C-alpha cells in the first residue's frame, strides 16, 4: 500500500526521536492527539539492534501499513543515536513511499521553553543553547509568532539551525536546551501534521543528521 492509496480515515503519523541518553517512538491516528501512543527507552550498549527490535514491538503490522508520514528529529543530540534514527526514518520512508519531515531537537523544545520563561513578545528572537564539554556552544535562534487577538503563541520559527559558536550571541536572551521525551515526540507529531496541511512533501533522501561537531567532542 503506497502513500497515495492510503485512505484519509485510516492514516498514522509516526515520530522518531532521540536525546542525549534516550530514544523513542510515537504515533498518532488521523491527526487526533488523543490517539497518541509512546515508547521511550534509555540507551543500551547495542543501540542499533535494539532500535529495530523495539520499533517492531512498538507498532503492530496492521498499524505499520497505515503510516502515511514520518517525522524525525535530526539533532543535535547523541551523535550515534541521531545517525541511527535518521537511517531508520529514511529507510521506512523509502520502503513505504511516504513523506519524511525532519526538525532539529531545539526546534521541538522551543515553544515549551518560550512558555516556561514567559517569552511572549511578537517577533521576539531568542536562543537555545547547549554547552559543549571541550569548546564553545551549540546554539540555534528562534522567533515567536503570536495571535493579536488571544496574545498567545501561535508558532515558533527556527531562524538559525543549531551550529557551533565560541561564545553565546546573546547571553541575556539565551536558554539552555531541555529535552523532554514525551513532549518532544508530541511536537514532532504536531509539526509533521502542520507541514502536511501546508502541502510540504519532504523526500527521504534530503534528510540528514544535524550534528555540528565530531563524536569525540
Task: Tell me what the structure shows.
This protein is an alpha/beta fold. It folds into 2 domains: 3-104 and 185-206, ATPase, nucleotide binding domain (Nucleotidyltransferase, domain 5, 2-Layer Sandwich); 106-176, no CATH class. Helix content is 29%, strand content 30%. It has 5 helices and 9 strands. The chain has helices at residues 47-58, 61-64, 79-96, 105-116, 181-197, and strands spanning 12-18, 22-29, 37-42, 67-73, 99-103, 125-131, 137-146, 153-165, 174-176. Strands 3-2-1-4-5 form a 5-stranded mixed β-sheet, sandwiched between helices. The protein has a 4-stranded mixed β-sheet with strand order 8-7-6-9, with helices on one face. Strand 4, helix 3 (79-96) and strand 5 (99-103) form a beta-alpha-beta unit. Helix 1 (47-58) packs across helix 3 (79-96). The protein is globular and about 50 Å long. It starts with 11 loop residues before the first strand and ends in a 20-residue tail after the last helix. Mean pLDDT is 87; it is low at 1-6.
Amino acid at each position: 500500500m503506497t502513500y497515495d492509496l492510503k485512505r484519509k480515515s485510516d492514516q498514522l503519523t509516526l515520530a522518531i526521536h532521540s536525546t542525549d541518553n534516550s530514544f523513542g517512538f510515537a504515533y498518532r491516528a488521523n491527526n487526533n492527539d488523543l490517539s497518541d501512543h509512546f515508547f521511550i527507552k534509555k540507551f543500551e550498549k547495542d543501540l542499533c539492534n535494539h532500535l529495530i527490535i523495539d520499533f517492531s514491538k512498538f507498532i503492530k503490522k496492521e498499524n505499520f501499513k497505515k503510516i502515511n508520514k514520518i517525522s524525525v528529529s535530526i539533532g543535535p543530540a547523541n551523535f550515534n543515536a541521531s545517525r541511527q534514527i535518521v537511517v531508520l526514518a529514511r529507510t521506512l520512508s523509502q520502503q513505504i513511499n511516504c513523506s519524511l519531515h525532519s526538525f532539529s531537537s531545539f526546534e521541538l523544545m522551543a515553544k515549551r521553553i518560550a512558555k516556561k520563561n514567559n517569552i511572549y513578545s511578537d517577533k521576539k528572537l531568542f536562543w537555545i543553547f547547549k554547552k559543549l564539554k571541550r569548546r564553545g556552544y551549540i546554539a540555534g535562534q528562534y522567533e515567536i509568532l503570536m495571535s493579536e487577538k488571544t496574545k498567545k503563541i501561535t508558532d515558533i520559527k527556527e531562524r538559525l539551525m543549531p551550529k557551533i559558536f565560541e561564545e553565546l550571541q546573546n547571553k541575556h536572551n539565551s536558554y539552555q536546551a531541555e529535552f523532554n521525551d514525551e513532549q518532544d515526540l508530541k511536537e514532532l507529531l504536531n509539526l509533521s501534521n502542520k507541514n502536511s496541511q501546508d502541502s510540504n512533501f519532504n523526500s527521504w533522501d534530503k534528510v540528514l543528521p544535524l550534528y555540528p561537531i565530531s563524536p569525540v567532542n
